[in-house]
Amino acid sequence: MVGSLNELKEASSEEIARSRRLLQHPYAYLDEFGGFSALSNCSSKQADTFTAAPKKIIEESRHSHTEIERRVKNLHRRIWQNRNKIWSNVTPSNPIDMLDPVIALKFVGYDCELDETLGIFYSDGKLIEVAGTIAKSSAKVCISRRFENNIRNFTAAHELGHALLHQTGSLHRDRPLNGTIISRDPIEWEADKFATFFLMPRKLVKTTFEKIFLTDKFFLNEETAFALGYGDFMELKGKVKPLRQLSKMLASAEQYNGRHFISLANQFRVSTEAMAIRLEELELLAL
Ligand SMILES: [Zn+2]
């Protein structure tokens, strides 16, 4: 999704109707960011290019879950192979420290800066503060300082996804993102998936989880409840229904079995909710 409110205003209803007929595709709709996906890369005055541009976006936006994960793995591998060049002074000893979307953006050729504010935009009739922008034409990403670190981190990783998956020719703006809202726009969904895989890679989350909870699948029982610091198993069992409550508890836990550590969410610099969802996706726990 690219496009601004102004571009949207410029787009006549005739063009929108025409794009729907041409595309016969769900992307030809107004998206939640106030832009119009089908009009990406072309203004209302560029009728000649209008038929070609949307098709390109559609092709590029069809990335399967598996394909996105494969692309992220490739990027991780390239970052690892080039770690001595990227971190010329001190190469991180912990692989989690290499999951830095700002460094990755620079590695793939993007200029990335932090700004005090990136303005506001309309979505669903509400004014929303912009958390991140990307302009592929100038290879530039901006992240707003107005949000807490895990939102900045996820938003930067989302922009990294756009940089590697999509043609975002004009300025694309994003709301604050932390990976817990499923986007209705397929392109936004893909960028979110990219961010999730980039920040919380399957293998690294699993091995870190195993180190902390001493198992590759956590089941809640009297013993594990006690290790979490709860003497009353039945009381805890009542508290953690549905599963998301237990997932959040494990994502934010800072002690287990008498050992203290940095929580999974904080180690991976994501929100508790985002890590909780990832733990469930990886089937690392059950009630
Ligand atoms: Zn986006």
How would you summarize what this structure contains?
The protein has 287 residues and is α/β, with parallel strands linked by helices.
Description of the molecule:
The chain is of the alpha/beta class. The protein has three domains: 5-60, no CATH class; 63-199, Orthogonal Bundle (Arc Repressor Mutant, subunit A), CATH 1.10.10; 202-286, no CATH class. It is 47% helix and 11% strand. It contains 14 helices and ten strands. The protein has helices spanning 5-10, 13-23, 52-61, 65-81, 83-86, 101-107, 149-165, 186-199, 202-213, 222-227, 233-239, 243-252, 264-267, 272-281; strands at residues 111-115, 120-123, 126-129, 132-135, 140-144, 172-174, 218-219, 255-256, 259-260, 285-286. A four-stranded mixed sheet has the order 1-5-4-6. Strands 2-3 form a two-stranded antiparallel sheet. The radius of gyration is 21 Å and the shape is globular. The two termini are 39 Å apart. It binds zinc ion (ZN). Zinc ion binds at residues 158, 162, 172, 174, 188, 191.
Q: SSE layout and pairings?
A:
Layout: H1 5-10, H2 13-23, H3 52-61, H4 65-81, H5 83-86, H6 101-107, E1 111-115, E2 120-123, E3 126-129, E4 132-135, E5 140-144, H7 149-165, E6 172-174, H8 186-199, H9 202-213, E7 218-219, H10 222-227, H11 233-239, H12 243-252, E8 255-256, E9 259-260, H13 264-267, H14 272-281, E10 285-286
Parallel strand pairs: 1-5, 7-10
Antiparallel strand pairs: 2-3, 4-5, 4-6, 8-9
Helix pairs in contact: 4-8, 6-7, 7-8, 12-14
The protein binds zinc ion.
